[in-house]
Amino acid sequence: MAGSMHHRIVVVGGGTAGISVAARLRRAGQDDIALVEPSEHHFYQPLWTLVGGGAASAESTRRKEAGVMPRGVRWIQDRAAEIDPDAQRVTTGTGATLGYDFLVVAPGIQLDWDGIPGVPETLGRDGVSSNYRYDLAPRTWEQLQQVRGGTALFTQPVGPIKCGGAPQKIMYLAADHFRRRGILDQVDVVFATTSPSIFGVPEFAEVLEGVVARYGIDTRYEHELVEVEPGRREAVLLSVTTGEKTTVPYDFLHVVPPMSAPDFLKHSPLAVPDDPKGWVHVDDHTLRHVRYPNVFSLGDAASSPNGKTGAAVRKQAPVVVTNLLDAMAGREPSARYDGYTSCPLVTGYGKLVLAEFDYTDRPHPTIPLLNTFKERYDMWLLKKYGLPFLYWNLMLKGIA
Question: pLDDT by residue (tens digit) across 68-84?
């Protein structure tokens, strides 16, 4: 769709962040908004953990992108290929140019599968899968059911990833699945993570350490998956502290790839200087770009050091909209984001710990009268039914 056009506000990305912001801007009376998003479908990705554990269907997580696009927003069904913040212009993959007065950058995160040699050619078969892709999450469940014993290896890469708890959630579901089948004592469940502990917030780490002990999980802290040998079903782990490599034979392998901002951002003036990951450089609290006052960013591509989750976006979106409206009116940003995020940590079928925290890495509970520091069945119901309802019916419509 080559051509040139101009809009008062351009939003790059039609995922959770982009749709939420566009919907809120429409509710605030803004009527000249264009949104750049190539995908035909919109996904509720937090449920992919349950898809991989056989507790939800993949199809229930997918809807048409047109069905979630806020009314009155011009949908440019194309990908962003370049952003020139000095010229205030977005160029799309088909060569169209979009001029803007104000820009919201929310393209999500890029899964860098090629960062682990041997992974791309074996995903979805030969015992290797990942819940980080719509088509692979069902394969996770299919392959878990084929495990009869041996080693089930779960990995977490270095650097920020979306939903930092997801790599261990599927591990707990797998261990519980093995327990239910009576084969847990025949399966060596191994967790290789580059983190130095099971979770960064001590109060929740204590609970999760109990879960790890209950399932007898072998934790390999400060270890990174650096290579897979599909023909031999072997994974190579690298100690991030000593540089030593260890080969682990596997019967099942759940891979989480390294992640970064999309490639078109990495060499953009919007990116954090000298950061190869390419995150959009924003003020942690106002979410306004540190060098371009008419640019805002939120969600997984932003540099703010919060957990990259939908719960974070739910708190970021009203901050971005308020501050964007302030900027349009010539005012200084008045809203502040405190880094709140939540991680619903599935610890087994019917069990969930709701971890909520902020920039201080201290608990930030928001549900009154409930002790969310322990495994709860009602929190499992919240994740499986309550949060998807909130997402589709309130959050994407700019209400919650």
Answer: 999 999 999 999 999 99
CA distance 175 to 180: 9
Strands 259-260 and 110-111: antiparallel
Q: 12, 50, 58, 163: which is the annotated catalytic residue?
A: 163
Whether residues 175 and 254 fall in one domain: yes
Catalytic hit among 21, 34, 343, 346: 343
Active site residue 305: no
Instruction: Give the count of domains, the chain.
Output: 2
Range of the domain at 63: 4-109+261-338+391-397
Tell me, yes or no, whether 11 and 93 share the same domain: yes
> Is 386 domain-assigned?
no
* Inter-axis angle of helices 166-181 and 202-215, nearest 10: 30
Q: Please tell me the pTM assigned to this model.
A: 0.96
pLDDT tens per residue across span 296-340: 999 999 999 999 999 999 999 999 999 999 999 999 999 999 999
Q: Is 274 labeled as catalytic in the residue annotation?
A: no
Q: What tokens does 391 get? A: 């997402």
